[in-house]
Amino acid sequence: MLTRVIFNQKGGVGKSSITVNLAAISAQQGLRTLLIDLDPQANASQYVLGQHNGMTAAILADFNPSIYDFFDETANQNTPKNLLGSAIGSLLQTRSKGLQAVMHQSRFANLTVIPAHPQLNTLSHILESKHKIYKLKEALGKLTAHFDRVFIDTPPAFNFFTLSALIAADRVLIPFDCDIFSHRALLTLLENILETRQDHNETLAVEGIIVNQFQSQARLPTEIVNQLKQDQLPVLDTMLPASVFMKESHSKNLPLIHLATEHKLTQAYRQLFQEIEAK
To answer: Start and end of every AAA domain (predicted)?
Structure first.
């Protein structure tokens, strides 16, 4: 099982779109794929689990159970302090539902989803205070026989849930829009990933920077990408073109591969998936 986390501290760079479409292609290729949404905005959950009609899309509250329930159970697990407590603790542990209890089978073959919840951030403080940062990794470790690929969408912040995802992941993909502010923030982001690798997950690898919304005819995007390459940053060869077609994909709650196989944006995502799988 290979676990990828899609992460950028800057919002609006296409994290959820990239996560969902790579996961959808993975599943379409016959790989047993799990998509985990850790962003309280739940855009990835809506994208995959929303009905195939933008006017009657599912409401966030309908995504139950969700990753919130997993972390709520994690936060409320008590540490036994005596023999009797140990026995009770062992009994309770056998009842632990884990990630399998919060999974939803999507309407797409081979694609399973663990949706987010808008109240997820309310658990951050108690999870941090109880040092539960490795619980997601441990839970995923129990699923290795059930899935081939895991894709994790993260909030646009370096917080408890993002750190949990980076600790649980094998590889990290960094969406990047060709914006001067994104360029300035990229080094800080890479420093956070490096620190996480040093302190918590020595096998974590930066798989690459995904250039999104790329306009090949515009001067500034080309200059920014060239600068990234000159700085020897791991920019992936496949760049995702800017296209209003993505908005149609969102409105219909259909990943590109299920909406228009031959569209140029769909083909770019196919090529991107092939590139990262070849690494």
So the answer is: 5-205
